[in-house]
């Protein structure tokens, strides 16, 4: 199955595997250590939202944070994929936000609880349009940025990832069978911060993809 014609987000829909703290400046800004192996968590597919819909602040959340990330769309089934073959499993990319209820996450971290609510609530995975593999020649050197109400907040480059895209695909596929339509979120660069009702988030990847979402109270 080829995802080169994939344009509807409902077709990206198997599972969302996210990587945490994959940029050292972001790990540092939240007072976390740089990980020695990838930190992996899952977001449900019910968290997807597409341009035109709103990001909804979840019930009881007082600190909703933006995190802009490069998403990798998988288009072949595979497990235990060697790093040298990893890019063969990539069908394309999406610009994505890993919206995070930071207050829920802080509480979960303190108590040793899972991050599922903090990271997986409805609308926590806004995505832009599908980006073909050909149009992003070097995903390991791509500029990604995010503005809140036209003020630049995140301005990073995927070259600063701690674990590379091929390494992540290989590592993740050692535990989860990757399937066509799976999305891997590769972590966020520094500059994360809160958004509130009425804010407008804009984000972009190189000159290739842009997205815009309004924030609303649920
Ligand atoms: O919540 C966090 O800091 C972990 C994470 O998703 C990221 O680094 O992208
Ligand atoms: Mg993230």
From TrEMBL:
<keyword id="KW-0479">Metal-binding</keyword>
<dbReference type="Pfam" id="PF01557">
    <property type="entry name" value="FAA_hydrolase"/>
</dbReference>
<dbReference type="GO" id="GO:0005739">
    <property type="term" value="C:mitochondrion"/>
</dbReference>
<protein>
    <recommendedName>
        <fullName>Oxaloacetate tautomerase FAHD1, mitochondrial</fullName>
        <ecNumber>3.7.1.5</ecNumber>
        <ecNumber>4.1.1.112</ecNumber>
        <ecNumber>5.3.2.2</ecNumber>
    </recommendedName>
</protein>
<dbReference type="GO" id="GO:0047621">
    <property type="term" value="F:acylpyruvate hydrolase activity"/>
</dbReference>
<comment type="similarity">
    <text>Belongs to the FAH family.</text>
</comment>
<dbReference type="GO" id="GO:0019752">
    <property type="term" value="P:carboxylic acid metabolic process"/>
</dbReference>
<dbReference type="GO" id="GO:0050163">
    <property type="term" value="F:oxaloacetate tautomerase activity"/>
</dbReference>
<feature type="domain" description="Fumarylacetoacetase-like C-terminal">
    <location>
        <begin position="15"/>
        <end position="215"/>
    </location>
</feature>
<dbReference type="InterPro" id="IPR036663">
    <property type="entry name" value="Fumarylacetoacetase_C_sf"/>
</dbReference>
<dbReference type="InterPro" id="IPR011234">
    <property type="entry name" value="Fumarylacetoacetase-like_C"/>
</dbReference>
<dbReference type="GO" id="GO:0046872">
    <property type="term" value="F:metal ion binding"/>
</dbReference>
<dbReference type="GO" id="GO:0018773">
    <property type="term" value="F:acetylpyruvate hydrolase activity"/>
</dbReference>
<dbReference type="GO" id="GO:0008948">
    <property type="term" value="F:oxaloacetate decarboxylase activity"/>
</dbReference>
């Amino acid at each position: 199955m080829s995802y080169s014609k994939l344009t509807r987000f409902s077709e990206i829909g198997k599972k969302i595997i996210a990587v945490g703290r994959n940029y050292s400046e972001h790990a540092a800004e939240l007072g976390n250590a740089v990980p020695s192996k990838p930190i992996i968590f899952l977001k449900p597919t019910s968290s997807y939202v597409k341009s035109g819909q709103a990001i909804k602040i979840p019930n009881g959340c007082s600190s909703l944070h933006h995190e802009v990330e490069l998403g990798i769309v998988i288009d072949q089934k595979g497990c235990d994929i060697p790093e040298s073959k990893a890019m063969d499993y990539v069908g394309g990319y999406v610009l994505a936000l890993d919206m995070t209820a930071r207050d829920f996450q802080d509480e979960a971290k303190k108590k040793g609880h899972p991050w599922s609510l903090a990271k997986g609530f409805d609308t926590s995975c806004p995505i832009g349009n599908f980006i073909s593999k050909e149009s992003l020649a070097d995903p390991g050197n791509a500029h990604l940025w995010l503005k809140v109400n036209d003020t630049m907040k995140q301005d990073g480059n995927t070259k600063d990832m701690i674990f590379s895209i091929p390494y992540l695909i290989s590592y993740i596929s050692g535990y989860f069978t990757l399937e066509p339509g799976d999305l891997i979120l590769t972590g966020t660069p520094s500059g994360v911060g809160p958004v509130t009702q009425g804010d407008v988030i804009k984000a972009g990847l190189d000159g290739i993809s842009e997205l815009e979402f309004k924030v609303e109270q649920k």
